[in-house]
Amino acid sequence: MITNKKRNLRATALLVFSSFIAAHLCFYLLPHLFDTWNLKAVDRLFLFRSSSESFRPPYDDTIVHVDLTDTTMVRLNNFYLDRSHYAGVIRNLTAMNASAILCDTIFAAKKGDEKDDALIEASARAGNVYFGIAFELASNEDSRQQHAKDSKGELYLRRNKWQVTVKGDPRHFYTGTKPVATFPVLASASRGLGYLSVKFDRDGVFRRLPLLVRYDGAYYPSFSFMAICDYLGVPPEKIIIRPGRSITLKDALRPGEKEPHDIIIPIDRFGHMLINFIGPWERMKHYNFADILLASKDPDDMDLWNDELAGKIAVVAEVSTGSSDVGPVPTDTNLPLAGLHANAMHTILTESFIRELSGYEMLAVELLLLTGLFIISLGFSSPYFALGTFAMSLFYVCVASTAFLYGSLIFHFVRPLLMITFATLFIVIYRYINEERERAFIRATFGRYLSEEVVEELLDSPDGLKLSGEMREVTFLVSDLRGFTALSSSLSPAEVIKVINRYLECMVDIIGNYRGNVNEIEGDGILAYFGAPLAGSDDAERAVACAIAMQRKMEEFNKEQQRLNIPELMMGIGIDTGEVVVGNIGSEKRAKYAAMGSPVNTAYRIESSTVGGQVLVSASTFEKMRSILKIDRILKVPFKGLAKPVSLYEVKGIDGNYPLSMPKKKSDAFIKLETPLAVSCFPLEGKTVSEKSIQGHITSFGKSSAEVLLSEQVDVYSNLKILLDLQKATGANEIYAKVVSLDKSDSFAPRHMARLEFTYLSEDVKVFLEERRSGK
User: Fold this and answer.
1) Roughly how many angstroms between the first and final C-alpha of the chain, as a whole number?
2) How far is CA 662 from CA 480, 483, 503, in A?
3) Fewer CB under 10 Å: which end of the chain, C or N?
4) Domain 671-773 maps to which CATH number in 2.30.30.40, 3.30.428.10, 2.40.10.220, 3.40.50.12780?
5) How far is CA 275 from the centre of its chain?
6) 764 Cα distance to chain centroid
């Protein structure tokens, strides 16, 4: 019983842990599917945040866009803008006192004309212009690098590598291969070249940016990272990389601020920074390329533009129809990738970093959820457990969403929810199997002895049955046939089985009708109890009413016996009430629902004190129903092991909800014998006949009783086997009887007068006694 509890506890813990393993296996075996689900879940938070005025992150308009659009080409009446147009925009932005000009393009080849010269001159005079370089990003550190040894950009790369401080193992950082750089003269005239290459996630969405890549043993910054470091006055020497943890910008000082401070950028092991997108493309300020270019034609316009763009970081990019430099991001399905770099700079500038929980942190969260699942599984039934896990899922989603909206912290969504789902399924299925097994056990245990209605009530009331064991007050009913053992010796085995089955069928049906549980059938004996497995306030009342109904049924049973020319049978019933331990008792291979306690033994002892047709109840049962129980007489019966006789109450009838009366006793007129009948009496111990005989004489008798003068004293309520000398060859001369009283007067000394109740008479004895009664 306790073992079952421990086994269920261990099984539940194992199933909860299995849900953890199953969830992780899903991501290991099907990463593209489940990782994508998780990424999409986080994207929903970005979309919700960008659409909500309450949660939308503030926009720092230091970063602006200068867009070359379809409108630009119409206004300039030129559908092919060359490098001179870019030179003009750079000159004007410089005149407008822009802090940095980022040209999101790569001018890879020098044309050698005046347009190149104009662009070179404008960039050199500005001193704050950034151009692009492209790498193929390889994640394998051992991948073979393809250096541009013959490229004109090789010299620039060698001269402009960043010497940063690395504290940790950077082997997972991307390695740049196959560089394509802006042509050297323009590169030298610019403030610097940053790589434009980005990596999308496995679902094709851009969410993060590698801030640095390795190339030929050195580090090179991304387009946006280079520009923002310059804007904050952080040279490469003041950059500290802790791979998998952070990139620190030492002593960063934004223009206009007085005190420098360190900016710590969270990164993953690849050097990615999660970009905190502030919203769709339209969220940032956008200026038309044509407006900037044409502004120099009017000095007044230039003054207005200076007020607008002074101190700004301008990202110049082509975003016209047909541009291939677009891609999906969490807040936009087709964002020009210049916006990627702009949002990356905005994230660093505003220090509004988003951080994903590390693997160890998520493990701690999942273990906390596992603990919650385990606790809920112990405290609730399956329906409430399922509701509890659903509530836990909602709670987790709310916590994770709140952490993102208020703390810019990203929890893993899908795996914990998958874990909770698996745990719910595993435990509910396990419980279903267990409950079905238990239901099958209940049906197998009680279905043969209880009515279908009671069994269904038992199945519908799981709290009413604790197979693991509990203390219950139970009323026990024990019945036994008188003389059936002797009768069996005169019948064929087939006839014996028919008689006992017919008897048991009648009695078991009655017990079931009174919602009793037949726990044992041993030969012609029945042990039934009331109050287990289902307890009721009227258990004792139903037990006594059931006993009366059984005795009344014996009249009908015996009529059938007479019809079949089989001797009548009598039944005695004993009833006791008390507290016992009930539960599933036995081994793993063989067990049954049973009761243990002294009231069980007491009921058997009470029954052994009865005569045929009698119902005796104990004092504890009588007290339970004193007001409705009708008593014929009170017997003082000695029990072995007890110093004082025990009071037993002979039932006459019952009132209340089950009004019944015992069958009327037939009058038994005694006939006094002039010549007493010599008999040999053998005391019985259970079913065992003593070898020692006690000699005696029957002095008077009736149809069901007799008075016998014995040579030795016997115990009251003991059973005797009596042999008569019928002088017949058959030897069918047996009488079984119970001593119901003793005459303790001295008038018979030294012999002892005993009153006997017959429990069985052989047919020959019946004939003999009937002849004596009639005077033959």
Assistant:
1) 67
2) 17, 21, 19
3) C
4) 2.40.10.220
5) 38
6) 71
Residue with tokens 């009783």: 705
Whole-number percent of the chain with pLDDT over 70: 92
Per residue in 674-719, pLDDT tens? 888 899 999 988 778 888 899 999 999 988 889 999 999 888 888 8
Poorest-pLDDT segment among 127-141, 146-160, 300-314, 598-612: 146-160
- The pTM of this model reads 0.65
pLDDT of residue 491: 87
**Rounded to whole angstroms, what are the CA distances from 655 to 53, 552, 611, 623?**
78, 16, 24, 15
SS3 content of the chain, % helix, strand, coil (to 5): 40, 30, 30
> What are the φ and ψ backbone dihedral angles of 292, each rounded to 5 degrees?
-65, -45
Q: What is the pLDDT of residues 303-335, one digit of tens each?
A: 899 999 999 999 999 998 878 889 999 999 999
Check: CB of residue 428 under 8 Å from CB of residue 382: yes
- Equal fold, 468-661 vs 671-773: no
Cβ atoms of 542 and 516 closer than 8 Å: yes
Instruction: Give me the pLDDT at residue 462, please.
Output: 52
pLDDT band at 727 (very low <50, low <70, confident <90, very high): low
Q: Token pair 């290991």 is at which residue?
A: 28
Which range, 14-18, 146-150, 221-225, 375-379, has the best average confidence (pLDDT)? 221-225
Beta bridge mates, 688: 685
CA distances from 232 to 59, 249, 716 (A): 18, 9, 112
Supply the DSSP symbol for 569.
Answer: -
What pLDDT shows up at residue 438? 74
Dist CA 569 CA 523 (whole Å): 14
Helix axes 2-29, 359-379, angle to 10 degrees: 150
CB atoms < 10 A from the CB of 671, how many?
14
Distance separating alpha carbons of residues 207 and 199, to the nearest angstrom: 9
* Tokens of residue 611, six digits: 């005569």
**Distance (Å, whole) CA 164 – CA 240:** 6
H-only helix segments in 62-200: 70-75, 83-95, 114-126, 154-159, 184-189
Q: Where are the domains of the chain?
A: 2-38+362-438, 63-351, 468-661, 671-773
Per-residue pLDDT at 465 exceeds 60 = no
Of 508, 619, 526, nearest in space to 572 by CA: 526
DSSP string, 235-263: -GGGEEEETTTEEEEEEE--TT-SS-EEE
Cα 512 to Cα 451: distance, rounded to the nearest angstrom: 5
- Mean pLDDT (the chain) is 88
Q: Record the tokens describing residue 408, joined without a space.
A: 């810019």
Burial pattern 148-157, b for ≥16 Cβ within 10 A else e, equals beebbbbebb
Query: What percent of the chain is predicted at pLDDT more than 90?
Result: 56
Homologous superfamily of 468-661: Nucleotide cyclase, GGDEF domain (3.30.70.1230)
Distance CA 767, CA 732 (A): 11
Q: What is the pLDDT of residues 168-217, one digit of tens each?
A: 999 999 998 888 889 989 999 999 999 999 989 999 999 999 999 998 88
Cα 507 to Cα 160, 618, 759, distances in angstroms: 104, 21, 19
User: Six-digit token pair at 427?
Assistant: 């435990």
